[in-house]
Write a structure and sequence with these properties.
6 strands; globular; about 5% strand; two-stranded antiparallel ribbon
Length: about 675
């Protein structure tokens, strides 16, 4: 006897059963809305390019390109105008080079250790600490570079200036260690275990297997992490503006103050500049150069990632735990190769990325295996085993030392901030107004401005991020449109935050002034929304991909439409991961400094934005900019206030992260 759903009472029927035509109409509307939302990231990138090109064109109407590329001095704001971009570009490359020399030797050993040596318990303990390093606002690192790292370096290098490229480069390198270690670790762990086992079968130690097999296969992914780190350090603004100085000079001496491209944009933004002046056009032209540099690096890194994925899927495609191209072993003795290469088959190499990794049978080949794999020198195998194991232990010691150095930096930063600012953490400091006297200065307007900005940024960015992620994962097939949007999102992830600040300055502050009120808290929140949007999209897509396919299939099996499956099954299942990832991405809005400076944050505000409609259009300040302002003052009292404010800012980020983790776990418990 068949079951008739119509026999059920009306209240027992599934709530999602609707008329087929109505369901199709809803499906079409949802698809159109999501496609419009997904077009916003493309529109943002187009707007950035268009604005930079427009302002750069206006700049070159007054300044010849020849002077721009050949002058050796940079004084565009002085009457004797010199506009040699090579001066500030060389300073940017100098700071970036120092940063990479710090980040790569520390980050890569950490990645190898976490991927190959550390057990799960140790990995789970270390990885959150590395993530904490990346979550600390760069303005706090700038404070750390100027007031902690520079005095320590001056004890070893007396000729080091108070502002220098060396201090800025070292601390900038520390900030991107998590990027290098995390992405390199993922690339290393993606190498099939069968390759490692093949190395062990040949008698290689773990470090020899890593150096000769794992790292060459993972090389494109590791290089992608290096290029992304290089893109980040090129666009770093706050640390360079605080610790590197404001002196434009063409030099490769890391011990003297320099002016980077991002520092120049901050320097001009802190002053009063009219919209149509040469100085205004200059900061966009410098931004265009910076954008092209970071875009080139990011495009190269994206190509390397795709190359690595293609190699993993084509050359080394795991199937049932083994490599698909691995041959079937010969069954009879006559099928096996003899010592002189004569027999039913001879083993030939399988090439993966140009390197022979595996053997396959060839019934008519007569070459010896040694012809394909030349025997290493006998002395190599006569090396004492204890020495080879010693190299393995030495590398582990180096990796542990790199991890310890990273933890030491984090501990030193937090200790100094608490040591300097703990005595100032009181009610008067939290509720006080800014003052020219350090002992009377408070952070109430800055704290309220930060909370305003965070709330508005979440409201603006999250719907767009979730909608774009759903469109890419559920509605957009893996064709050219999907690839275009993905490339745009990847490029937006690597755009320096100061470029977003220039976008906000031109679009929200200048062009949309009748709607946003100019340099208002609304303009700043919309700018920060653009800053965190790429991260929100990536995080939401990762949460959606974690939903098992069986849940989709179950929904479709009982007649649900795609929209109904998303609304009733997929989004509830992905909700914990989505909320946690989105809260973590919104933390970037709390710590952002350079976009706020570009859109007109004030160093001194004697009022908090009112909790009303008028508050959206009020002038503002925020905690990161307040810290930046206090660190730039010469008085020691303001430095102590900056330390106290840094502790509060880091505390807010920590609370936000803990709340995200708690909400995720609570939701999962309810679902279970």
């Amino acid at each position: 006897m068949e079951f008739d759903p119509s026999s059920l009472p009306e209240e027992s029927r599934p709530s999602w059963r609707e008329n087929l035509q109505s369901s199709q109409n809803i499906e079409a509307i949802v698809r159109v809305v999501l496609s419009v939302v997904a077009a916003i990231p493309i529109a943002i990138l187009v707007a950035i390019v268009a604005i930079l090109l427009y302002e750069t064109t206006l700049f070159f109407q007054d300044i010849s390109p020849w002077r721009f590329f050949t002058d050796t001095e940079w004084t565009p704001l002085f009457p004797s105008r010199q506009v040699g971009i090579v001066t500030i570009a060389s300073a940017t490359l100098l700071v970036s080079g120092i940063a990479l020399l710090v980040a790569i030797p520390i980050g890569l050993p950490i990645a190898i250790y976490l991927a190959e040596y550390a057990n799960d318990r140790l990995r789970f303990a270390i990885e959150p600490i590395l993530e904490a390093l990346s979550g600390i606002p760069t303005v706090v690192y700038g404070y750390f570079a100027l007031l902690v790292v520079t005095p320590l370096l001056q004890k070893a290098i007396p000729q080091l200036s108070a502002f220098s490229a060396l201090s800025a480069g070292i601390v900038t390198g520390i900030t991107v260690v998590p990027i290098v270690s995390s992405l390199s670790k993922d690339a290393i762990r993606s190498v099939p275990q069968s390759l490692r086992e093949g190395g062990y079968a040949l008698g290689l130690t773990k470090i020899e297997s890593i150096l000769t097999i794992v790292l060459p296969v993972a090389f494109p992914g590791i290089m992608a992490s290096f290029t992304l780190a290089a893109s980040r350090v090129l666009g770093e603004t706050t640390i360079a503006a605080i610790a590197a100085g404001q002196t434009p000079q063409l030099t490769l001496n890391p011990l003297v103050p320099v002016l980077t491209m991002t520092s120049f944009i901050i320097q001009v933004s802190l002053g009063t500049v009219s919209f149509d002046s040469l100085a205004f056009h200059t900061i966009f032209t410098v931004g265009m150069v910076l954008f092209l540099l970071t875009l080139s690096l990011n495009s190269f890194g994206y190509w390397l990632v795709r190359l690595h994925q293609r190699r993993m899927s084509e050359g080394v495609a795991p199937s049932d735990g083994i490599v698909q191209s691995f041959p079937k072993l010969p069954d009879s003795r006559s099928d096996r190769p003899t010592d002189d290469g004569v027999g039913g088959s001879t083993l030939t190499p399988l090439s993966v990325g140009g390197a022979p990794l595996f053997l396959s049978s060839s019934p008519h080949a007569t070459r010896r295996v040694d012809d394909w794999f030349p025997s290493p020198p006998v002395d190599r195998f006569r090396t004492r085993l204890s020495f080879r194991k010693g190299l393995n232990y030495l590398f582990q010691a180096i990796s542990v030392g790199a991890i310890a150095a990273t933890l030491l930096v984090l501990a030193l930063l937090m200790f100094d901030a608490l040591n300097r600012g703990l005595t100032h953490l009181n009610v008067d400091f939290l509720t006080g107004l800014p003052s020219r006297k350090p002992q009377e200065a408070g952070i109430y307007p800055a704290l309220m401005g930060t909370l305003w900005l965070w709330g508005l940024t979440v409201v603006f960015a999250f719907p767009i991020g979730i909608g774009t992620a759903i469109f890419l994962e559920e509605y957009c097939p893996d064709r050219w449109l999907n690839q275009v949007i993905e490339i745009n999102i990847a490029n937006l992830c690597a755009v320096p935050s100061i470029i977003y600040g220039l976008l906000g300055l031109e679009l929200f502050v200048r062009l949309l002034e009748p709607m946003t009120g100019g340099a208002s808290i609304l303009s700043a929140a919309m700018t920060l929304s653009v800053v965190i949007l790429p991260m929100s999209i990536v995080a939401t897509r990762a949460a959606l991909r974690s939903v098992p396919n069986s849940l989709y299939e179950g929904g479709y099996a009982i007649g649900m439409t795609r929209t109904q499956v998303l609304w009733h099954i997929v989004l509830p299942a992905a909700f914990p991961g989505m909320v946690t990832a989105l809260l973590l991405s919104s933390a970037r809005a709390i710590g952002a400094t350079s976009p706020l400076i570009a859109v007109g944050a004030l160093p001194f505000v004697s009022f908090a934005p009112p909790l009303s409609w008028e508050g959206l259009y009020s002038r503002f300040t925020a905690l990161p900019f307040q810290i930046f302002n206090w660190v730039s003052r010469p008085q020691q009292g303001f430095h102590d206030k900056a330390a106290a404010a840094s502790a509060i800012l880091v505390g807010l980020l920590l609370l936000l992260n803990l709340f995200g983790v708690y909400l995720r776990d609570r939701t999962r418990q309810k679902q279970q």
